[in-house]
Write a sequence for this structure.
């Protein structure tokens, strides 16, 4: 039996607050084999480090040089705009190897992520899905706690993903 192209992922910590809450269910799609991930996308990862599926945001892409300076992240000496991230105190530098990604939680000081893992880089094969953050009617005219960058990056990734119509048909077919 093949894996479904879409499922719901339960967020199991406050590391992505305030955009994603502990216990929240988020529609997740399987990335295509040659999918090119974008910075800012929230992903479900089968972490070898932690031994379970986790939810984090991609901050570093293969080949990036990152510098974390408290509440600021610099990518190749360019300041990364992160309206979704909380203040942090961590300072370090990282060089992301080919075929790997650097992940952070949005609630920086409450997140176990690439900054503290023994193996800070996640391989492409560990990324199980892309979380789709759908805007509610309430948020369309107001601030989005998940951040504008998240919404835009996820929308771009959705264009490359299977349509929800084909996903619904796939799920219905397997349910029979």
């Amino acid at each position: 039996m093949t894996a479904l192209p879409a499922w719901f992922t339960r967020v199991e910590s406050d590391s992505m607050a305030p955009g994603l809450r502990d216990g929240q269910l988020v529609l997740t799609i399987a990335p295509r084999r040659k999918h090119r991930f974008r910075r800012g996308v929230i992903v479900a990862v089968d972490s070898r480090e932690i031994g379970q599926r986790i939810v984090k945001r991609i901050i570093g892409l293969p080949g990036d040089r990152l510098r974390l300076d408290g509440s600021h992240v610099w990518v190749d000496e360019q300041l990364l705009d992160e309206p979704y991230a909380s203040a942090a105190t961590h300072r370090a530098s990282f060089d992301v190897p080919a075929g790997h990604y650097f992940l952070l939680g949005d609630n920086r000081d409450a997140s176990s992520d690439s900054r503290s893992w023994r193996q800070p880089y996640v391989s492409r094969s560990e990324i199980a899905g892309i979380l789709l953050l759908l805007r509610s009617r309430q948020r369309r005219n107001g601030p989005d706690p998940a951040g504008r960058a998240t919404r835009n990056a996820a929308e771009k990734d959705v264009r490359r993903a299977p349509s929800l119509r084909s996903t619904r048909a796939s799920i219905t077919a397997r349910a029979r």
Notes: Residues 137-176 have pLDDT under 50 and may be disordered. Helices lie at 148-160, 164-175.
